[in-house]
Amino acid sequence: MGTPNPADGAAPRRGRASGWARRALAACGLALVLVLAYLFGCEPRYRGTLVVRPPRPLVFAHRGFGDHAPDNSLYAVERALTAGLDGVDVDGQLTRDSELVIFHDLSVDRLTADTGHVRDKTAAQMLALDLGPKYDPRLRGANVHTFEDFVRDVKGRGILMVELKVPGLAASGIERRAVEIIQRYAAHDYVVLSSFNPVVLYRVKRLDPKVRTALIFMDTNWNPELIAEIKPGDVVNLPWPLRQEFIRRAIRKIVRPDLLSINHQVDEAVLDRLIAKGWPVFIWTPDEENALRRALAKRPYGVISDQPIRAQQLRDQ
User: Fold this and answer.
1) What is the pTM of this model?
2) Per-residue pLDDT for 195 more than 70?
């Protein structure tokens, strides 16, 4: 009788282990494919709970009061709300001393008599700048104001949507400052924080899940009209991934914005699909009458226009 060879049983055991490993690897691969297919290929129905559906599309004034008043000024916002508009869309940036001010361009040159970047100026320096004369030489006193001033002024009069301008991924503190002010004024029901940058919106939700957020997007990089009004050194290109709908589909699942703010030139099939899925969609910025009519006919949550009075008239017809 021969002595058993340990190697005789080891080979089947190795075969069984190898088979289990292959099956486990295949299962992991299948799971990964399914996850990726869901993230990038599936568009589920909107399930947010913080947005109340209006009976008709809302009309917001772009940059305060569109073409009717100085860009991003409280002066403009007061006149837009007095005109009966549902809300206003403005832009927020941090100053050198970490105050959140409302201002569109990264530099102050185009809109004021001063020069330099917003990030390099103190809050006091920014608030001393008058937005009036560059809009109309006869207009004085339309000074830059803080986000807090806007929140205080808009309360009870309409909705304030503020784009937080953060070009990169590094934390700047802008989200914390915005959330602190919303909490201080119990402004959750009339302030929306928006951004092209999904990381910013993710941080906002981590700070306070009840703050309403809006993801802004477009299909192209900046068009010549937008480029023409920005200093060459201030142009921040929109990253390629944020211009691809399949990637934005995944971003929406991870970041979970409450609303979408979609450029009116985005692929119409994308726009129609998101509205059909129940997303509260703002369409920006249809300004020509035909573009306004097309946007309003889609029955979006709202439109943001540089011609808000005409948009309001068309909506109410």
Assistant:
1) 0.92
2) yes
